Amino acid sequence: MIRxxxxxxxxxGQDGAYLARxxxxxxxxxxxxxxxxxxxxxxxxxxxxxxIHLHYGDMTDAGNLLRLIKNVAPQEVYNLAAQxxxxxxxxxxxxxxxxxxxGTLRLLEAIRILDMQDDCRFYQASxxxxxxxxxxxxxxEQTPFAPASPYAAAKLYAYWLVRNYREAYGLxxxxxxxxxxxxxxxxxxxxxxKIACAAAAVKRGxxxxxxxxxxxxxxxxxxAKDYVRGMWLMLQQDKPDDYVLATGRAETVRWxxxxxxxxxxxxIEWRGTGLDETGFCVAxxxxxxxxxxxxxxxxDVGHLCGDASKARKALGWDAAVKLETMIEEMxxxxxxxx
Length: 338
Ligand code: NDP
Ligand code: GDR
Fold this sequence. Notes:
This protein is an alpha/beta fold.
């Protein structure tokens, strides 16, 4: 039997690591692109690295991407590489645009120049950040976009390019408009992992204070392993399309803190408001959580909650992992780290 081949940019990121496992389990030949100067090295894929064909590359290097696509000749391309931190995009807007927007253009152009549009399917990691502050209570594929960061603006450019290459050149290219998804492999600088890490540290007896930005922000958090299955499903359809993947449930950052600390047997009580809001351990009275304006964004997206009806109907996709279960998994993974 001929094995299908897939090429994943950002293979050593959270989603890349889950997707690579998923595709290997399905019998794919998996190729992944990593940067020579990667900050996270290949820790997330250490256990499967020998089964993946790893290639050095960078989304800012068009010739490199062209050569990789030519040599690998994949049937499926998953474009997951990105400067993916929203707050960092305010500090590095041009770089974020270069990687997230122009990087996608370079990859699509490689496929077009090589005349591979009939042999290769393309997945683009689009984001619920496209909706920004659209003020819709629940967002779906029809909700107008209102990007509120350089990251979201760059992702919006990539989103439209994907639709344009689909219409102009007949490329099987799909956007997955994914709401937040987390896991024990989530980067330390994202709020879910930061909270899970702090809850475990307090449980271990460390003298630490969790400092956060906007506690009122509401997000629709799912589990990465459910979401990579959705990416794959999009590329198995006869026709390309754009799909929202979400759980349909939104909670605040404050709620996430309470649940994560409950996992280690600590109840949090909030006192004060705004910058003075502090989370105390109910049992000991010790302050454990404080607000630090350094983590405020110039503009924040206050409420994201997705409607994945289209993906449920067309792809048979659903978010299987319950939010509470995922938080327990993340805290427990942090507890087992020393
Ligand atoms: P991560 O930040 O965990 O991974 C990003 C990956 O991109 C890393 O492998 C990183 O490698 C790579 N990368 C960054 N810059 C470059 C570059 N210049 N050239 C090549 N590779 C690069 O993100 P996630 O796995 O969480 O997300 C995957 C994708 O999905 C991203 O595009 C993200 O924007 C998008 N997304 C994520 C959501 C989520 O909730 N997780 C929701 C919606 C969209 P390195 O080790 O070298 O830094
Ligand atoms: P997000 O995720 O910006 O939604 O982007 P993040 O976890 O960074 O923030 C979620 C919300 O929490 C608030 N927040 C904090 N965020 C961080 N990182 N650190 C803090 O200390 C903190 N305190 C409060 C934020 O203001 C925000 O409202 C993620 C990324 O994976 C993107 O790549 C992806 O596109 C979107 O999810 C969907």
